[in-house]
Amino acid sequence: MIWDTHAHLDDSQFNADREKVIERARQGEVTTIINIGASESTSRQSVNLAQKYPFIYATVGVHPHYAKDCSDETWARLSRLAQNPKVVAWGEIGLDYYRDLSPRDVQRKVFIRQLELADEMGLPVVIHDRDAHGDILEIIKKHTPQAGGVFHSYSGSWEMAKELLSLGFYLSFSGPLTFKNNRKTAEVAANVPEDRFVVETDCPYLTPEPYRGKRNEPLYAWQVLNKIAELKGLSPEETASLAVENSKRLFGITK
Ligand code: NI
């Protein structure tokens, strides 16, 4: 069995068959799902899903795309929401210099604010980093939350990975690891210590091979797991049990 540590099951792409998608995951031995908040409303939806299913957990936080919409009231409401016992991390937060949907200075300010909030609440963070490696590293070095965190769908170099690992962070791998030309991420997955990686889908986005082009779903976390096993020269069973242990430690889930 494995976990999908980063899903967006609240996405409208699942409105027609959400129950079936969740059932397929469970039948296929994806036993636990962490549903990720990306705005105030999707954070609320994540908590609602986690209330409905015992094997779904939630995170709350604001993605850099929506940084420009945040106010002090946002932080007050999200902090209250984060007190729900099914909330296991703050995120996804970070910087996105690829789409630049919020001004970069606002993205940085909102990222730092949320790193502080996570730390106040004793929660690990889920970090989104798109084409912003330098600024992310500079900020995270100064504001590392005590409970640590994970770089989701890690896309940086092995050089940067070593710095993040030395700060105590985990690295999460997703669909792009399975793409043929992705040598950079393959190098990271091959070298990441056995106690510092987790598996995710980021569904409905980032669909792995051989399903590329279709909607992604938690069941396909196996494609990512199998690729990590292959790159590390471990059996899928061994890799799965490492990934689950790492996920539990990262999110402080003891069951
Ligand atoms: Ni995501």
Outline the structure in words:
With 255 residues, the protein is of the alpha/beta class. The protein has one domain: TIM Barrel, CATH 3.20.20.140. It is 42% helix and 17% strand. The protein is built from 9 helices and 8 strands. The chain has an 8-stranded parallel sheet. Strand 7, helix 7 and strand 8 form a beta-alpha-beta unit. Helix 2 runs parallel beside helix 3 and helix 8 packs across helix 9. The longest helix has 18 residues. It is globular, with a radius of gyration of 17 Å. The structure holds nickel (II) ion (NI). Nickel (II) ion (NI) binds next to loops. The site of nickel (II) ion has 5 residues, from loops.
Keywords:
255 residues, TIM Barrel, 8-stranded parallel β-sheet, 9 helices, 17% strand, binds nickel (II) ion
Total number of domains: 1
Instruction: List low-confidence stretches.
Output: none
Mean pLDDT: 97
* CATH class type: Alpha Beta
Please list the strands of the largest sheet in the order they lie side by side: 1-2-3-4-5-6-7-8
> Considering DSSP H and I runs of 4 or more, what fraction of the residues is helical?
40-55%
> How many DSSP E strands?
8
Structural class label? alpha/beta
CATH architecture: Alpha-Beta Barrel
Percent strand = 15-25%
Q: What quaternary form is this?
A: single chain
Please give the largest β-sheet. Answer: 8 strands, parallel
Ligands in the structure? nickel (II) ion
How far from one another are the termini?
14 Å
What string gives the helices and strands in order? EHEHEHEHEHEHEHEHH
Q: CATH H level: which superfamily?
A: Metal-dependent hydrolases
* Radius of gyration over all CA atoms, rounded: 17 Å
Characterize the overall form. Answer: globular
